[in-house]
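Our preliminary data section would be incomplete without showing what the modeling component actually yields. Below, a chain of 532 amino acids is followed by its predicted structure, encoded as tokens that our downstream tools consume directly.
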Amino acid sequence: MTSVPSHPVLTCAEAKVWEARCLKDEAAEWDAMQRAGAAVARAVEEDFKEIGGLPVRARLLVLVGKGHNGGDALLAAQAILPRYPQSTAEILLCFGEPALRPLARRSLDELLRAAGPRARVRSVVEFGASERAELLGQNFDLCMDGIFGFQFRSPMDKATVGMIAWVNQHPRIRLRAAVDLPSGVGRVSAPTVYRADFTYATGIVKSPLLLSANIAAVGRLRYLDLGFFEAQHGEPNAPDRVLLPSILGPLTELRSPQSDKRTFGHLCVVGGSASYPGAVVLAVRAALRSGVGLITAFVPERFAPEYAVSHPEIMWVGCPQNSAGGLSSDCLPALRERLKRASALLVGPGLGADPETIELVRRIAAEVKVPILLDADALRPEVVHELGKKSFICTPHAGEFKRIAGKLGLREFCKKQGGVIVLKGPMTQVCSGAPASVKANRALKHRVTSPAIYCSLFGGPVLARGGSGDMLAGLIGGLLAQKPDDPLLAASRGVVWHGLAADLLARAHGQVAVENSQLLEQLGPALHHTHG
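Predicted structure:
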């Protein structure tokens, strides 16, 4: 099994130890802060494209604390302002200028030298009614929060509570960004926390960012890799990990000139019904984009001729239908014969919930010898039970996961059931019953890593449309057919690819006026974008 490109999620205490290991003097700290500031600026500019991009006359509001987080926010502002020559920044020093630590002070000096009069600085030791009234009447395109870092400890002082509450309620801030963690979020979070649209985890993703209690404050989480887990530092063990875009690297490489269609696997797809005729089409179209060599799709016989005309690359097999318009059990013999030449099987897109069809799926799960991916209506307890120790992937959303797992959590269910589970959601998680392929490091206490959970921080609300899950299933199915011996890699790679394509789609066309199938056109650019 290939090691999945990923980095560990650490607790705040572990992150403190690890940063001290990587940043041994002030020069190293300053270098890391400069990289963090530049990375935050780039990421903010990219994410702002989802709402039209930062305007030429962008107005920034920067909330600065005492330490490195405030310095990172200042350096991010310093990077943004020159690229938008008519932009301005309002800098609020939340604890006053004398409280700035040396590197935060240096960051402020760098910003003022670069921006000159376009950056206005004010000390706000007491955030009173006059300050609120003045700033409330102003429009801001971007607010960056750098008040507290991951070493935040409650309680928060009254003035800062007032400032954060005011920013959260401000009606004219287009995008709220948090550097590393939203202020007030930590090992124990404060009652009042900064509510971000995007949180940019710098260097290390800290575990409070993944807690369900902090979802509303974190918004969409981005990981900015600063090289803290490069070879010279090693890597700590951790039960939660974040997937890296480098997982797509092999897909950008040249294929062997001696290849033929059998080289890249053969995926069989079972799906479609009168109730959901389009889902299986979306799935096979995504599978085609995965690079798989051959696809055979088993669909109700009434749809096969039409599908063959619109997508002739697919081998469409029309199957007997039952009275509900779904697949009947009579298609099992043809499926058995075709599966002898397949390298993977996808079952579920548009299948419907007719009892006869579900019984067909149960029998398929009991008999299949190739790796199988179950999606949508194929995700039934009686079907999953038949998988036993087979190689399989399940791709449920929250409701489907509850249907197959009951009261068990993701890690507990995966440990019990085995296989690979892709739990879809605002932050999709991939869990494997196999141990994580990472090395423990004595710098941190050893923690059990089996089963590991891999988090994808790519994608966003543009995916909140019917059909996006069908395309994800097809994409993963095609990758599984090419790598049938490594379902964890196929699932993780598919989730990252799908999410990156969604990011590109939203940045190109916005979050609203798009069709879900446009995602397919971004799969190629997503590979190029990753390679670049």
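DSSP finds 17 helices and 19 strands in the chain. The chain has two domains: 6-236, 260-531. Preliminary results of this kind motivate Aim 1 of the renewal.
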